[in-house]
Amino acid sequence: MEAAILLFDRLTALDAVGPYEVLRQIPGAQVRFVAKELGPKRTDAGSLALMADYALKDISSPDIIVIPGGPGQADLMEDRVILDWIRQIHTTTHWTTSVCTGALILAAAGLLQGLRATTHWLALHVLLLRQLGAEAVSERVVVQGKIITAAGVSAGIDMALTLTALEYGEEVAQAIQLSLEYDPQPPFNAGSPGKAPATIVERVRSRSRFKVPA
């Protein structure tokens, strides 16, 4: 099994690394970090870089592609080279996936037409998914045929475990979950806008690059 995780400048690190930690443990898996150009790609904070060892031309038919999100997603939505590569790769993948605002990149490539899809809660209501033909839903992981979209950041781990269970069986997915000791017990019940105090929701929203339309 070959999985390709797209890297780009100003991506969110966990969007890529979360799925990587799951997929790399699938028996026989080869997980490759790919980008438009080889080399380090700085994450949204700028203090961390992930290395792309493969260029787009080097990856032609992976079984799985993962499209992460982050502020750099806006540029990729207008990058014809990236979008054409995603469209071409999608024709032969077993699974085409996104994490967080990576769903907007899939939508820009025309892959979410008429499909239910999720993304980070801050981006759900900016109309972009709807304008690009998708039905935005507030769910953690959404499976539509061979396309799987995940909500914000940490949901990429859930997405990769879901994919693993669908492709290789629940026992394989459970073994990977256990090896990661992925047993969320957060200190606060504030992991979604429906649970967090209203003041916290507004604090996070006020700092967001996405603004709710009037």
Describe the fold and architecture:
- The longest helix has 14 residues, at 155-168.
- The strands form 3 sheets. The protein has a 7-stranded mixed β-sheet, with helices on both faces. A two-stranded antiparallel sheet has the order 3-4. Strands 8-9 form a two-stranded parallel ribbon.
- The relative contact order is 0.14.
- It has one domain (2-186): 3-Layer(aba) Sandwich (Rossmann fold).
- The protein contains 8 helices and 11 strands.
- Strand 8, helix 5 and strand 9 form a beta-alpha-beta unit.
- It is of the alpha/beta class and 214 residues long.
- Helix content is 33%, strand content 20%.
Secondary structure elements and pairings:
Blueprint (H helix, E strand, L loop, with lengths): L1 E5 L6 H11 L6 E6 L3 E4 L6 E4 L1 E2 L8 E4 L5 H4 L3 H11 L4 E5 L2 H7 L7 E2 L10 H4 L3 E2 L4 E4 L2 E4 L4 H14 L1 H11 L17 H9 L8
Q: Which descriptors apply to this entry?
A:
single chain, seven-stranded mixed β-sheet, 33% helix, 11 strands, 8 helices, Rossmann fold, 214 residues, alpha/beta
